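User: Hand in any protein.

Assistant:
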Amino acid sequence: MSDRTKLNTPGASRWTRRRVLGTAGKGFALGTTALAAPWLLPGRASAQASEVNVLAFGGYEEPGMLDAFQESTGIKVNLKIHDGSDEEMVALVRSSPAGTFDIITPTSAYVPRAARDGLLLELNPGDYPLDDYFEIIANWPPCYVDGKMYGLVNRFGYYGITYNHEKFSEDDVASYSVLWDSAVSGRVALFDWFLPNMGCLSKFNGNPQPYDLDAAAFGALVDRLTSLRPQVGLVGNTSQVIQAMAGGSYDLAIAGEWVQAGMYDDGLPFKARVPEEGGVTWDQAVCIAANTPRMENAVKFVQYVAGPRFQSMLAIAKTYYSMVPNKKAAELLPDDKRELLNLVDLDRFDEVFMANLSPRKDPDNRQEWLDAWENFKNL
């Protein structure tokens, strides 16, 4: 899977946690998963006013996710699950006839350019339950262009430290400095994605905007990354890292709830936290195509997926776990899942996990970042 594809999901992609844990020692490749898209079939009449066409990443297709919306509004959801990259999702809107897709769900980092290119409809913040959102997500910078809102995050997660809680306390992993502790030499595993790993190390270096670095700050980041190499015993893909951690070979990783919650739910001793220096996010934002002929239906759909009922289901989707931007969604989660996702005490979650998160994005000097990462792997 290419690095440009990896930006759109937390990393587990469309593989369920149990499917990953069940592939020990086996190679596998990600395939294309798409539900039928009836509005694209030859000979079909143009979509009716009682429909909305949605292009989304995995999770929306799972049983019960959209039933309440369709039953309460009478609007039929024509859903297509996208298994490509964010670039490909935006390109589909750009190249398709008006009305082909009313809704898309790209990573928020792609919202500003798509909005400036005229592909997205401006949203009215008053139409959505932003008062129920964690404040940092309600005002998420990539969703706004020139003070206008073009996307609404309805699914997100974080990269911090995932740790074996039988060997480390939460206080032990309060700083990324634990990764350099001599006691964990060779027992750190990293997923082979340069953006989140280097983004977190950039936060450790004290950069509030971890991907917007001048030459000196970037050089310091490369030095920091290089210094970590002796501690790292594995740089691998999703299945390799999860299997190795599940087998007890590694105790620490730069990762978040999308790894930790799934493993913990399967009886493995892993928890996660955002260190004091902060972390970076993954997310998905819901946007309305500027050329939609069904704006009213599209607005109703965004309202639904911004609401607590949908988000509480999406948070524990089989595809992968995620966090809930809407605080009321946390209250609807089963107690065990709420504890699993560190959402029992929402004030504490806001202070410990949310306070110092930065959006993950492509840096302007992306190739230099990628080169540094490849050099790191080959040390």
Observations:
- The chain has two domains: 3-156+283-358, 158-280+362-377.
- Confidence is low (pLDDT under 50) at residues 1-9, 11-47.
